[in-house]
Amino acid sequence: MFALVLVGGFGTRLRPLTEHTPKQMLPICGVPMIEWVASHLADHGIQEIGLALGYRPDAFRAAYPDGRIAGIPYKVAVEPEARGTAGAVRFAALEMQLKEPFLVLNGDVLTDLDIGALIEFHRKSHAEATIALQVVADPSRFGVVTTKDNGQVREFIEKPPAEASPSNTINAGTYVLNPSVIDRIPDTRPVSIERETFPEMALAGTLYAMKSDTYWLDTGTPEQFLEANLDVLHGRRQNKPELPLAAVEATAQVEDSVIGTGSHIDAQAIVKRSVLFNGCRISKGARVIDSVLSDDVYVGEGATIEGSVIGLGERIEAGVQLVDQTWPAP
Ligand code: GTP
Fold first, then answer.
1. In Å, what is the CA distance from 21 to each residue of 12, 59, 218?
2. Is residue 218 located within the same domain as residue 310?
């Protein structure tokens, strides 16, 4: 299924971060947000994506000049002016000539949602549109949704006051839409899918919703943006593109050392006065002191490397002690 990602908003709540950079090009642990979204889609078998662009469209094209994001080919539709979330869907769907049901994603949502299950639910319920739902503690910032047992949406209320919220189940920003939804969206003015299109479809009885309790985060505010980064560091995500950062576990000790990107220092490991190139793994309780490790070196649990130089891709097994050595030996 084709996936259309909405990435054209101004991201005003994240200013000044979004002053020069669109929100979805901001880094989450060093990887632009759009790559997180695209790699999640790739993990669920999506083979082509479209970007609905508006604010600073050139940032995306400049970052991915070979026409792929996280390995998936992409096309773009650039709105001449902000059209709102539904207007953006209409504009891009017509530009991209979408004739089959397609996915729509808010590009600022990070989730491990089972996309295949959502598509399956949509097909089985013969819905015109199906939205993924998430349960949150404070629904007042979101579109609140109530459903019948079969998933048919009874009510869709965008950002109700906390005390008036009929449930804490919210619109998670991932949808499957039949092409007929496009005809519901006027093209004479900006239209919000959350404020107009979905509430109207709920009244018409053609909107369905599927609940999910997987990882989900809307990154729209500075607090949530920070949380998105920490969630990756704390291993709360299933889906992960390759990270260019080094990771150092809380109980590891690193002093006077250079740690290359993609390296990982496990708990209770010690690294002192050493240089690690990229992609090294220092396992639990291992010690690396006064040493240089080339790319992709693996040091097993409790091993010691002291005053040594280790070559590309070498494996130093658990418990081994290498002192004043060049490895492999010349
Ligand atoms: P704020 O200004 O901080 O509210 O952020 P935002 O502009 O990103 O708005 P919001 O978070 O409500 O948008 C949800 C998703 O829709 C984001 O991925 C936006 O990039 C996208 N979006 C919002 N408005 C438009 C639009 O007019 N055109 C396009 N193409 N995308 C939009």
1. 11, 7, 18
2. no
For residues 185-194, b (16+ Cβ closer than 10 Å) or e, as one string? Answer: beeeeebbbb
The Cα 133–Cα 146 span in angstroms is 10
Inter-CA distances, 67 with 41, 48, 229, 303, Å: 16, 11, 26, 44
CA separation for the pair 190, 311 (Å, rounded): 59
Structure-block tokens of residue 113 = 């949602």
Does residue 50 line the site of ligand 1, with CB under 6 A? no
Q: What tens digit of pLDDT does each residue of 55-97 get? A: 999 999 999 999 999 999 999 999 999 999 999 999 999 999 9
Percent of the chain with pLDDT over 90: 76
> pTM score, two decimals?
0.81
Q: Does residue 179 share a domain with residue 267?
A: no
**Ligand 1 binding pocket mutation candidate from 25, 33, 108 (most atoms within 8 A of CB):** 108
User: What angle is formed at CA 119 by the lines to CA 113 and CA 124, rounded to 5 degrees?
Assistant: 130
Whether the pLDDT of residue 239 is over 70: the answer is no
| Residue of 124, 148, 159, 211 with catalytic role | 159
Alpha helices in the chain (DSSP H): 33-43, 58-63, 84-95, 115-125, 180-183, 198-204, 222-233
pLDDT digits (tens, 9 = 90+) for 119-130: 999 999 999 999
Residue 143 sits in the same domain as residue 30? yes
The residue type at 161: P
Lowest mean pLDDT among 143-157, 186-200, 255-269: 255-269
Q: Is 124 a catalytic residue?
A: no
Identify the domain containing residue 283 by its residue range.
247-327
Same domain for 255 and 159: no
- Whether 238 is in a domain gets the answer no
The residue whose CA has the least distance to atom 14 of ligand 1 is: 106
106 lines ligand 1 (CB under 6 A): yes
Query: Are 166 and 50 within one domain?
Result: yes
